[in-house]
Design brief:
heterodimer; A: about 270 residues; alpha/beta; Elongation Factor Tu (Ef-tu), domain 3; Rossmann fold; Dihydroorotate dehydrogenase B (pyrk subunit), domain 3; 3 domains; 7-stranded mixed sheet; 6-stranded antiparallel barrel; 4 helices; about 15% helix; about 35% strand; globular; B: TIM Barrel; 4-stranded antiparallel sheet; 8 helices
Chain lengths: ~270, ~280
């Protein structure tokens, strides 16, 4: 990847579908010059024409087709609410693809994906892309949500060999959190050996790492952050990595969004 | 104001639209989004003698029409900057102005020595908002004696290199500090750096930032910056470079009208990276 590939584009909102009480699937027209993105990369969106909110908002890419870029927006504040209120035909300014690292899988390996909430997005992109490229063996998605009305995994049931759902309130699937389900499935031998990929709340990813999944060659995670520049320039969104001599910060937008989970200094991250 | 070659000190600039120090990093990160060649200059992120990891904890907090930051001068250090980053910035066709940290006196003198040996450096901007680590941590640019010392040393050691003094607005009378800067030999004054602010996290009840205070930038600070540029332009003869919240072509026109010889664009590139080039276009004859 070279950073010369990113660009600033005006796209058209082709479709905005409400897919859960708080989430919207946005389909944007893909500009001709927008190069193919990789799973874990993102676009930054200019939310309004004024100065409130001031900053663009970063959204992980869920899919790229010949003519479209697909994103998932969960309404969590002013910016996302404004974005969710945009209508078909509206013009939306994006910069992308952004991010200096992405999910990778060696040919033939199995991929186990663990997601919480909208953390699903880059994992769906990875599964779709790799399946198209005939890379993985089996692909398993483990998805956790608070209750059954926020299960975004229904958007992508066909994209994985198997989808396993956990809800905290027990209203659907496994009764518990997604990491408890991961341990349960591992113990019962349901999950294949391979590589682990995660995206979700800090607590989820840390618990997953602590659960010590020995049968997995590696565990990479895509991190979320409040960002300003989106290109690794301003050093506003950084994650501390473990280092022998002092602290080592890496920018989530420029060096990430994907990091090896065990490289992250969890004592300093997400406290 | 028109796009034409003009001098600040010994340095010739092709137009009066610069990228401000900080938001644009080393400039090269913005390739593909900003045509660096088209701008008058790119002021780099502040460089210190040794690499700096920057501040722990939250570093950004959006406010109404503004942005608080507590990045803590994270940078790769002088050696890596001059060996790796500067050549790339020059390759991109940019005219660099290197922002230098004004830290402890010994480190600062070493940084000036190293900088003076760089054949490709034509201009520097002194970041006088750096804390005075030797005496209490106030910004060095708040004390007239220290201000004079830092600028005098830069002029002495850097020889023909143009020296801009970037002043902190967190003082009682910035105009008198601008006069001190001019007398100390500064070739130009850059105003303003960020205003001090803070935010509270209502869940924890404590400050958002580990260091409590942070620097406020963005449209919210523009009226302050404009007032300061106006005041300084009345009392110095050297060029004043206006920076602070410029978000439109009209904003830049206001700074020129207030007496700025050039403008710098900072926070606005986060949401509108096309703005600096539009300002250049607006100045075409």
């Amino acid at each position: 990847m070279t950073d010369l590939m990113k660009g600033s584009y005006e796209t058209e909102l082709v479709l905005s579908e409400k897919v859960s009480p708080s989430s919207f699937l946005l389909t944007l027209s893909k500009p001709d010059r927008f190069i193919d993105a990789m799973p874990g990369q993102f676009v930054s969106i200019k939310i309004g024409s004024g100065t409130s909110p001031l900053l663009r908002r970063p959204y992980s890419i869920m899919d790229i087709t010949k003519n479209s870029i697909v994103l998932l927006v969960r309404v969590v504040g002013k910016g996302s609410a404004l974005l969710a209120s945009r209508r078909k035909g509206d013009l939306i300014e994006i910069i992308g693809p952004l991010g200096g690292s992405h999910f990778e899988l060696k040919n033939g390996l199995n991929a186990v994906f663990v997601a919480g909430g909208t953390g699903l997005v880059p994992l769906v992109f990875a599964a779709r892309k790799w399946t198209k490229e005939k890379k993985p063996g089996e692909t398993h998605l483990l998805y956790g949500a608070a209750g059954s009305d926020e299960i975004l995994a229904d958007l992508c049931m066909g994209d994985f060999t198997e989808v396993h759902i956990a809800t905290i309130d027990g209203s659907r699937g496994f009764n518990g959190n997604v990491v408890e389900m991961f341990q349960d499935l591992s113990e019962r031998g349901v999950l294949p050996e391979g590589e682990l990929f995660s995206c979700g709340p800090v607590g989820m990813v840390k618990a997953l790492l602590d659960s010590n999944p020995a049968s997995f060659a590696d565990h990479h995670t895509s991190l979320e952050a409040v960002m300003a520049c989106g290109v690794g320039a301003c050093r506003g969104c950084v994650v501390p990595l473990k280092s022998k001599n002092g602290i080592k910060y890496r920018s989530i937008c420029g060096d990430g969004t994907v990091f090896r989970a065990k490289d992250i200094d969890w004592k300093r991250w997400g406290k | 104001m028109r796009n034409k070659n003009f001098y600040i000190g010994n340095t010739i600039f092709k137009n009066p639209v610069f990228l401000a120090s900080g938001p644009a990093g080393y400039g090269i990160e913005y390739r593909g989004l900003i045509n660096l060649e088209k701008l008058g200059a790119v002021v780099t992120k502040t460089i210190s003698l040794m690499p700096k990891e920057g501040n722990p904890g939250t570093r950004l907090q959006e406010t109404e029409a503004g942005l608080l930051n507590s990045v803590g001068l994270e940078n790769v250090g002088a050696r890596c900057f001059f060996e790796d980053k500067l050549p790339e910035l020059l390759n991109a066709g940019a005219k660099p102005v290197v922002s230098l940290a004004c830290e402890g006196k010994e480190e600062y003198l070493s940084l000036l020595e190293i900088t003076s040996k760089q054949k490709k450096v034509e201009a520097v901007e002194l970041n006088l908002s750096c804390p005075n680590v030797e005496e209490g941590g106030m910004a060095v640019g708040t004390d007239p004696k220290l201000l004079r010392w830092y600028i005098t040393k830069a002029k002495l050691i850097l020889g023909n290199i143009t020296v801009l003094a970037k002043l902190t607005p967190n003082v009682e009378n910035i105009s008198s500090l601008a006069v001190v800067s001019e007398r100390a030999g500064a070739d130009g004054i850059t105003a303003i750096n960020t205003l001090l602010g803070m935010d509270i996290n209502l869940e924890s009840g404590g400050p958002v930032f580990d260091r409590v205070v942070a620097g406020l930038s963005g449209p919210a600070i523009m009226p302050v910056a404009l007032r300061v540029v106006w005041e300084i332009a009345q009392v110095v003869r050297i060029p004043v470079i206006g920076v602070g919240g410029i978000s439109s072509v009209e904003d830049s026109a206001k700074f020129f009208a207030a007496g700025a010889a050039a403008v710098q664009i900072g926070t606005a590139i986060f949401y509108d990276p096309g703005l600096p080039e539009r300002i250049v276009d607006s100045l075409e004859v």
